[in-house]
Write a structure and sequence with these properties.
Helix content is about 45%, strand content about 10%. It is an alpha+beta fold and about 110 residues long.
Length: about 110
């Protein structure tokens, strides 16, 4: 588990991609090849960041800096392994999966 040096969030960091999800979705919907290139570009700039404030310097709670932040700010720590990590698929991922399935289904039915 980690703590954010900027906002004091306690939990796990998340992957942050550069660019915009909406732009990526539009490019995939209307222009397959540019959508693919934009997706590659976004994933190339991926970094780990705080899910609350987006700061990219989260430190382990058991590190000297992490302990100092907790102590100085009187932060209460999660109990029994609770974290702020979200699980599951994002809306964009679900939409892309559905669009991919529709394209594959159309290609299979169109070739018969």
């Amino acid at each position: 588990m980690k703590i954010c040096k900027s906002c004091g969030y306690v939990g796990e960091d998340i992957d942050r991609k550069r660019g915009d999800s909406g732009t990526e979705l539009l490019l995939w919907l209307f222009f397959i090849f540019p959508g693919f290139l934009y997706s590659l570009w976004r994933r190339g700039g991926q970094r780990r960041a705080c899910p609350k404030c987006g700061h990219d310097e989260m430190v382990p709670l058991d590190s000297p800096i992490g302990k100092k932040i907790v102590e100085e700010n009187h932060i209460s720590l999660p109990v029994n392994g609770e974290t702020g990590r979200k699980t599951g698929l994002s809306l964009i991922q679900i939409i892309l999966i559905v669009i991919g399935a529709i394209i594959i289904f159309a290609a299979i039915n169109g070739s018969k």
